[in-house]
Amino acid sequence: MKKIRILFFVLIVVIISTNPLYPIIYGSVSGVVTDEETGKGLPGVHVSIGGRVNLIVVTDPQGKYAAKLLKPGRYEIIFTPAFPHCNAAIPDRIDIGPGERKIINKVVKLGGSIRGRVLYSDSKKPFPGVSMYTFARFAGRDYATTEEDGSYFFRTAGQICPSTNYYIRADCQVPNVAYKVLLGVVVEKGKETEAGDILFDLNDPTGIEGYITSSIDGKPLNNVEIAVNSKDKKYPGSSEDATFGKISTNIDGYYYIKNLDPGNYWIHIMPDIENNWSFYDFSAHCKDEKDIVVNPGKKTKVNSQLDIKSLEKPLNGEDNE
Questions:
Q1: What is the distance between the alpha carbons of residues 284 and 311, in angstroms, rounded to a whole number?
Q2: How far apart are CA 78 and CA 90, in angstroms?
Q3: Based on the number of CB atoms within 10 Å of its own CB, is 102 exposed (0-12), middle (13-18) or buried (19 or more)?
């Protein structure tokens, strides 16, 4: 009998909340965002609430926030404090029932920052306009671009949390040039980390080149993506091999990526996706070439074939050479 009453009550709530003749019974979420060190409320924290509605509220001088008139359903809440506090960008997931007033308090901790430079290796002059990316699992991420003096600074939006597992990737956006990657960068609470200089030699031929052709008709395959991965270096806190660049074949099926550090690599070859392909079709046509040894100052040739028929396509972008 008790179960029947509960089911009846739930049914009534569903009917009322979904029937246009009855008003929606809204819920709300509120709480306080406090500093881990002092225990005091933090003002100015952006609280993003996404789900059946999407809105942002900001904590008041006491660290309090409130979001009202929320339709019943599941929501994700992300707390983004301003620097020097950090946010690991892991959302809190909550379910709000009709008329429910949910309280979600959040404790945020003091973050850190990373500063460094990107230079040309031969002249040691600054390299502006390089796209920078940093990431640490469960600790946050950030993006930046090098300034005219080659410097970069990671601290935007309070994303940098303390961790020993950050890596920094620099992509100079020059065709055929590999990423430069710094692994195991340490960020300490409340401190600024000075990362080592990242050096690019745009004339260094050290790398991998080759042709990708069709095993069916022997013709070159255009716009096939090549991901270059290191067997020697792994992302911190992970068993995943670090990626040192991505490049696509040109109309002749040719690819070349240079300025790689000498070492052991493997490449993941991904064809241009056809409109009628499922994910299974795409995965089945990908291919790995392993045990590639890259020596200083040399191009290592790695040709490969994919079991797909070539198509007469215009070149997407410019040639690799």
A1: 18
A2: 7
A3: middle
Q: What is the pLDDT of residues 132-159, one digit of tens each?
A: 999 998 888 899 999 999 999 998 766 7
Contact call for residues 184 and 212 (beta carbons, < 8 A): no
CATH of 207-306, one of 2.40.128.90, 1.25.40.10, 3.40.50.300, 2.60.40.1120: 2.60.40.1120
Q: How far is CA 287 from CA 174, 192, 207, 267, 308, in A?
A: 26, 42, 19, 8, 12
Any idea which residue has 């099926």 for tokens? 253
pTM of the model: 0.77
Q: Which residues contact 289 (CB under 8 A, 6 or more apart)?
A: 266, 267, 269, 302, 304
Indicate whether 13 pLDDT > 80.
Answer: no
* CA angle, residues 168, 185, 142, in degrees to nearest 5: 45
Q: List, by residue range, all CATH 2.60.40.1120 domains of the chain.
A: 114-200, 207-306
Give the torsion through C-alpha atoms of 273, 274, 278, 281, to 10 deg.
Answer: -70
Q: What is the mean pLDDT of residues 200-228?
A: 95
Q: How many CB atoms lie within 10 A of CB 15?
A: 11
CATH of the domain spanning 2-108: 2.60.40.10
Q: Which residues contact 36 (CB under 8 A, 6 or more apart)?
A: 107, 108, 109, 110
Q: Which residues pair with 213 in a beta bridge?
A: 220, 305
Q: Per-residue pLDDT tens for 225-274?
A: 999 999 999 999 889 999 999 999 999 999 999 999 999 999 999 998 77
pLDDT interval class at 8 (50, 70, 90): low
58-62 LR contacts (CB < 8 Å, sep 24+)? 59/32, 59/33, 62/32
Contact in structure between 140 and 88 (CB atoms under 8 Å): yes
CATH code linked to domain 114-200: 2.60.40.1120
